[in-house]
């Protein structure tokens, strides 16, 4: 429930770069160095699938890949207008502290933040 002047803000993993449908191409294939990931390959972006994953040693969780259009259309159907999109990037301090973890996020966004208001 929102007040008449309220706004809806939410964050999702970026639909264009979820793993899958996207994956880093590694050269050589067994390298873990960010410098040896020349590009990200995206395939089957329009498939609507459940993704099961977990950090090592943690319980598995599920998320659902949907194309960006599904989110926009869902908002439109219930009377919202998207007023802002953000694709956040890690700051310099994060890159300095954990380069291997965050370097790829300087190239493609992991998350999408959406702000919407009632039309």
Task: Give an overview in words.
With 119 residues, the protein is an alpha+beta fold. 17% of the residues lie in helices and 34% in strands. It is built from three helices and seven strands, in the order E-E-E-E-E-H-E-H-H-E. Strand 4 and strand 5 form a beta hairpin.
Oligomeric nature of the chains: single chain
Tally of alpha and pi helices: 3
Question: What level of helicity do the residues show?
Answer: 10-25%
Low-confidence stretches: none
Relative strand content: 25-35%
Question: What class, by secondary structure content?
Answer: alpha+beta
Determine the mean pLDDT. Answer: 90
Enumerate the strands of the largest sheet in spatial order, edge to edge or round the barrel.
1-7-6
Summarize the structure.
Helix content is 17%, strand content 34%. It is an alpha+beta fold.
Task: Provide tags for this entry.
about 15% helix; alpha+beta; single chain; about 120 residues
What is the topological layout?
Elements: E1 7-13, E2 22-25, E3 39-42, E4 49-53, E5 61-65, H1 68-77, E6 80-86, H2 92-97, H3 99-102, E7 111-118
Antiparallel strand pairs: 1-7, 2-3, 4-5, 6-7
């Amino acid at each position: 429930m929102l007040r008449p002047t309220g706004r809806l803000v939410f964050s999702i993993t970026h639909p264009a770069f979820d793993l899958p449908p996207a994956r880093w191409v590694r050269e050589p294939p067994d390298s873990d160095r960010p410098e040896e990931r020349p590009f990200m390959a995206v395939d089957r972006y329009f498939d609507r699938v459940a993704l099961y994953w977990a950090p090592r040693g943690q319980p598995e969780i599920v998320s659902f890949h949907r194309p960006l259009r599904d989110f926009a259309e869902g908002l439109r159907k219930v009377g919202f207008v998207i007023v802002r999109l953000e694709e956040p990037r890690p700051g310099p301090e994060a890159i300095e502290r954990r380069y291997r973890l965050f370097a790829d996020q300087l190239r493609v966004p992991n998350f999408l933040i959406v702000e919407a208001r009632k039309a």
